[in-house]
């Protein structure tokens, strides 16, 4: 490909020393003229007054960081740039963003890169641009430091939580439509009457009463006890004095934790005496939100290991052992240095998809080290393992070890019996026992608490052991396949309000109980009821697909809408094109196998249906509506 250059007169963003220029950014939430998926699209050019290094020099430098890219050949600088943006866009987190395209124009090249979050992808493009320019100038480039900044940006986005991203990735792989509802702060999976909405592993079909009940650890514990399940003896206290009295009555060691809490925050296990109890009480107190009453649980501390049993739709699917953060001495380094060394391991990148978080140094750690007659300055003898916390808090650097295949049948039945008492899609059951391979009926087994919104990363990416594909179990609860997550969609490149109403009426004659959503540039309907039309065209489409009763969507996507906004959804069951432009022909690109495509060019009609093509000409005074209305029956 001939090198594309921009003259000094049209230089947009390039700085004085730059040899490349990127400009004209546009973000599409879905299929667009350049990619059949959400993408960031921008223009790329070489600055006319400056010469880049040979492309091999850039490939060599990039190959040092991404060896597989260094082994490839590239048609142009633009192709190299596009693939590097795509690769960096995965953020070393194995994000599923791997699609890109390059389209040449006379004065520039248009690059399209698959995108989930506009701000992050745009910053990735600028990051790669700075990297290319640093290579040109033979300057140092703080790649890892800047990549961490990008990871943190993505982590702070609505898609960056590990559970949300894992579900989103799985939905993409299964062909399940998924998008974020900004006004509601929820993810939607599926379309129309097939859809579910949720936050992480909590969904709109879950009982909010059951979900709230699990946060009341005292009441929940009492309920489990009435069912005959093993729970540790304990009490609710409202002051440090009451905590001391409760501990004396129960007998040390005890565990202390706030009634309302999550992620192990404020939890202290194995409290041995009144001095430790005072510190544990204060940690629990500090973890209670300001708008909550002071209520703290003091209960018998059970010896053993910490396990999470996970049930989806009332069925046991995974078990994980959680161990406190630890380091192994080498005879030379202090504990603080061992922690720093451990935190540099790739497994502790502390991204949304890392198997482990970085080890956190705080007061709880230092107090526990004191109990072991250690400090951060202690040098640990070679081979000795030092545990840094009493509680296996994964967010503070703990380890997760898959234990799914070790669980005794009695413990599986126990977990399922508990889960089936709650109308919740996902339920995490935290237990303490020496081994899950022994029945709870004959071992020191205790249920510590249950969680209505359990995370999935500990099962999906354990520190040790096999991965359990929990996101698939969750989404398969709602959808047997990607096809089951969708409603039929008919897409037009142009349709008038009158034609839209006629199409609705025609389909309602065949399916009188259906709810049909329809939108064109001039109106929005639910059946024949006219609704408010938003200036943002795709927001109309989203609102209809959010409708929990919708059986069918009819939507118009003309050239100007495709160029400005792109499509909201992928793939149609029927596409009707009336004298389409080249851009509007992209609608034929995004269809299912077996879809019907009707194209009119002048009086010539072409119908493609289940691999067959039928061509004919319209009769005199024969309306086009007669052609496509006849075909609607084939998609239901």
Automatic annotation (TrEMBL):
<keyword id="KW-0547">Nucleotide-binding</keyword>
<dbReference type="InterPro" id="IPR011761">
    <property type="entry name" value="ATP-grasp"/>
</dbReference>
<dbReference type="GO" id="GO:0018169">
    <property type="term" value="F:ribosomal S6-glutamic acid ligase activity"/>
</dbReference>
<feature type="domain" description="ATP-grasp">
    <location>
        <begin position="221"/>
        <end position="479"/>
    </location>
</feature>
<dbReference type="GO" id="GO:0046872">
    <property type="term" value="F:metal ion binding"/>
</dbReference>
<dbReference type="Pfam" id="PF13549">
    <property type="entry name" value="ATP-grasp_5"/>
</dbReference>
<dbReference type="GO" id="GO:0005524">
    <property type="term" value="F:ATP binding"/>
</dbReference>
<keyword id="KW-0067">ATP-binding</keyword>
<dbReference type="InterPro" id="IPR013815">
    <property type="entry name" value="ATP_grasp_subdomain_1"/>
</dbReference>
<dbReference type="GO" id="GO:0009432">
    <property type="term" value="P:SOS response"/>
</dbReference>
<dbReference type="GO" id="GO:0005737">
    <property type="term" value="C:cytoplasm"/>
</dbReference>
<protein>
    <submittedName>
        <fullName>CphA, cyanophycin synthetase</fullName>
    </submittedName>
</protein>
